[in-house]
């Protein structure tokens, strides 16, 4: 009986089980990874054996994490390898452009289907009075092939990691099109680049130019790199399991699910708590991913650099999710025109953004009419340069804003207000046209970056706030010539760090808020949750209860404070801590590892908490 049970457990391990995710914080993963390292000892010296073995494990890892969606990963790999090779081999620019459009259409089409199918279906049903329902056609195909109704087809679930590996394959195609990269010859090598398991489901977003050359190099791992990898893995596990999971389960989730049941001070603590929670969760995953990859002989790029030390919003995005922000800069912002000018892509993106806001704000044909009329007036003015026509158009925009406010179409009104301000500045100071183009490109980049996170107005607002802040900061830098002079005033830098941190925390409220059920058949929308949190902080702070709250939630308060202290430690202190670990005798390192593992085992929740960015 024991033998049968053992074989059954082994068999169950190789079957996808959504209730038992195969992630970095599960003991199952680490036991299996030890076995993988044991086999790796016999394969790492041969490049082909090493890469092929890791490719098979990466495929298995994604199957255990995402189930049936494994086939989407394979499909995306084959498609982009084919288009990349064809683009490189042809000398006809028109055909190359056609192939790039095909590649991007396939990638963005699949991504849009799984991320925005509900939004588009609701929009079509509303617009044409139809009754279409969303279906997961991949699940339906799986049922047909297996001859049984195993997979649910009524709901569309976002495949784990699809946003990350889609961005990776898109950058591969774009770099080949731009002439910056040669395609890999073997589809297996390309599949290994796309599916490399440490960074597959939540980044960092690794570019082909950074990773593919490593595939063909001999395995190397110095003693210093080995110790750095172990330190990163331990650091990541502590961030995720001790700090992020604990403050999430024991405080943050409770407050965000019912803000009015807590004082304004508790709501503010929850906002601070979420800021360190999402940082420790995401950077913790990245630390583990970089550490595991390093043990296997591959170097992944830095993805976080103490972002809450930033003294401006621009500096924050140079430190937070660096691989995504640099991807948006190189493949979206620069395509829009960057710091130079507006491009055709800019003029496509503005109406596209307005259409999305129309869908979210509630479609109304009069709004569409205003949208088309103002667009025509802008185009005619750009062609004729007649300023009187611009002033007429501005009056139309102003009346439109007032009309949209009266209809409570807040998002469209906000978008038109931004366009109105930009247009006025161009009329008054034509020499600022290039600067306005930069601000517009920043706004569009961050709006689309917010939309990348999901088809919800909260993400669009989050992106718009960051885009607006980036534009304002760039404007301030130009007005004050701050980019041409350095400011070493510590008080000024500290003041700007405090301002930047609190602005980022304010934006996190929109990012974190979810729809919550507060009773039978009663649901509080995410935007209502945001309003209630801000209302509680602004009107029900109750400072006389501060000490009582701190004492009542002392464990949460201590761990949150510990997280911030670690984050704000001077960089040289962190380097010194790592060097001390590296210099310690092997028995001391082993003792540290055992103590940390036992401590994490005691601190972990009963259910495995998935990483936050798995949902994106």
Give the topology.
Elements (H helix, E strand, L loop, with lengths): L1 H12 L13 H14 L6 H20 L3 H20 L3 H36 L8 H10 L15 H16 L9 H9 L1 H4 L7 H8 L7 H35 L6 H32 L17 H5 L4 H15 L7 H18 L3 H20 L2 H20 L3 H19 L4 H20 L4 H24 L9 H23 L3 E4 L2 E3 L1 H14 L6 H7 L1 H15 L2 H13 L2 H18 L13
Antiparallel strand pairs: 1-2
Give a written overview of the molecule:
This protein is 73% helix and 1% strand. It has 616 residues and is mostly helical. It has three domains: 16-215, no CATH class; 223-304 and 513-615, no CATH class; 313-506, no CATH class. Helix 11 packs across helix 24, helix 15 packs across helix 19 (433-452) and helix 19 (433-452) packs antiparallel against helix 20 (457-480). The radius of gyration is 26 Å and the shape is globular. The model has no long low-confidence stretch (mean pLDDT 82).
Task: Describe the structure concisely for a colleague.
By secondary structure, the chain is mainly alpha-helical. The chain has 26 helices and 2 strands. The protein has helices spanning 2-13, 27-40, 47-66, 70-89, 93-128, 137-146, 162-177, 187-195, 197-200, 208-215, 223-257, 264-295, 313-317, 322-336, 344-361, 365-384, 387-406, 410-428, 433-452, 457-480, 490-512, 526-539, 546-552, 554-568, 571-583, 586-603, and strands at 516-519, 522-524.
Features:
616 residues; mainly alpha; 3 domains; two-stranded antiparallel sheet; 73% helix
> What is the count of helical runs?
26
Terminal CA distance reads 43 Å
> What would the principal axes of the Cα set say about the shape?
globular
Structural class: mainly alpha
Low-confidence stretches: none
The arrangement of helices and strands along the chain is HHHHHHHHHHHHHHHHHHHHHEEHHHHH
State the strand order across the main sheet.
1-2
Largest sheet: 2 strands, antiparallel
The pLDDT mean sits at 82
Strand content: under 5%
Estimated helix fraction? over 70%
**Total number of beta strands:** 2
């Amino acid at each position: 009986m024991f033998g049968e049970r053992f074989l059954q457990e082994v068999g169950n391990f190789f079957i996808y089980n959504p209730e038992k995710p195969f992630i970095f914080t599960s003991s199952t993963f680490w036991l299996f990874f030890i076995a993988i390292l044991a086999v790796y000892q016999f394969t790492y010296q041969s490049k082909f054996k090493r890469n092929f073995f890791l490719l098979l494990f990466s495929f298995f890892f994604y199957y255990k994490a995402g189930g049936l969606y494994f086939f989407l990963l394979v499909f995306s790999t084959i498609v982009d390898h084919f288009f990349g090779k064809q683009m490189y081999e042809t000398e006809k620019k028109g055909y190359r452009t056609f192939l790039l459009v095909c590649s991007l259409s396939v990638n963005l089409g699949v991504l849009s289907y799984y991320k925005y199918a509900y939004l588009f279906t609701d929009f079509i049903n509303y617009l044409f009075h139809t009754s279409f329902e969303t279906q997961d056609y991949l699940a339906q195909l799986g049922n047909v092939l297996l001859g049984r109704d195993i997979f649910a087809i009524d709901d569309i679930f976002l495949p784990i990691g699809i946003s990350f590996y889609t961005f990776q394959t898109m950058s591969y195609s774009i770099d080949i099109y731009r002439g910056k990269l040669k395609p890999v010859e073997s589809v297996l090598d390309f599949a290994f680049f796309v599916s490399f398991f440490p960074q597959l489901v939540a980044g960092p977003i690794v570019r082909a130019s950074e990773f593919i050359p490593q595939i063909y190099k001999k395995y190397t791992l110095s003693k210093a790199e080995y110790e750095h990898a172990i330190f990163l893995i331990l650091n990541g596990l502590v961030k995720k399991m001790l700090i992020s999971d604990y403050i999430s389960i024991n405080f943050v989730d409770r407050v965000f699910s019912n803000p009015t049941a807590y004082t304004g001070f508790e709501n503010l603590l929850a906002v601070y708590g979420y800021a360190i929670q999402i940082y420790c969760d995401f950077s913790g995953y990245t630390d583990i991913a970089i550490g595991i990859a390093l043990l296997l002989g591959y170097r992944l790029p830095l993805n976080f650099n103490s972002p809450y030390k930033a003294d401006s919003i621009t500096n924050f995005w140079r430190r937070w999710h660096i691989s995504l922000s640099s991807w948006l800069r190189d493949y979206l912002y620069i395509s829009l025109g960057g710091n130079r000018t507006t491009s055709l892509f800019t003029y496509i993106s503005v109406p596209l953004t307005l259409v999305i806001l129309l869908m979210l704000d509630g479609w109304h044909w009069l709004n569409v009419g205003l949208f088309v009329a103002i667009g025509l007036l802008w185009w005619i003015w750009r062609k004729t340069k007649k300023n009187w026509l611009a002033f007429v158009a501005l009056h139309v925009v102003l009346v439109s804003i007032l009309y949209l406010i009266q209809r409570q179409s807040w998002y469209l009104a906000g978008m038109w207000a931004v366009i109105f301000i930009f247009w006025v500045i161009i009329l008054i100071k034509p020499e600022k046209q290039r600067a306005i183009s930069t601000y517009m490109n920043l706004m569009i980049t961050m709006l689309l970056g917010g939309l990348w996170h999901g088809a919800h107005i909260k993400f669009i607002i989050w992106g718009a706030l960051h885009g607006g802040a980036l534009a304002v900061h760039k404007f301030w830098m130009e007005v004050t010539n701050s980019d041409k002079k350095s400011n070493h005033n510590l008080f000024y830098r500290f003041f700007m760090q405090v301002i930047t941190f609190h602005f980022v925390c304010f934006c996190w409220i929109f990012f974190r808020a979810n729809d919550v059920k507060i009773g039978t058949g009663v649901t509080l929308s995410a935007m209502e949750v945001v309003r209630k949190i801000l209302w509680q902080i602004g009107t029900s702070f109750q400072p006389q209860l501060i000490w009582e709250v701190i004492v009542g939630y002392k464990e949460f308060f201590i761990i949150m404070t510990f997280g911030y202290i670690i984050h704000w430690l001077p960089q040289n202190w962190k380097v010194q801590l790592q060097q001390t670990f590296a210099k310690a005798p092997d028995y001391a390192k082993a003792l540290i590892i055992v103590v940390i593992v036992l401590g994490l085992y005691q601190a972990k929740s009963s259910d495995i908490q998935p990483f936050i960015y798995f949902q994106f």
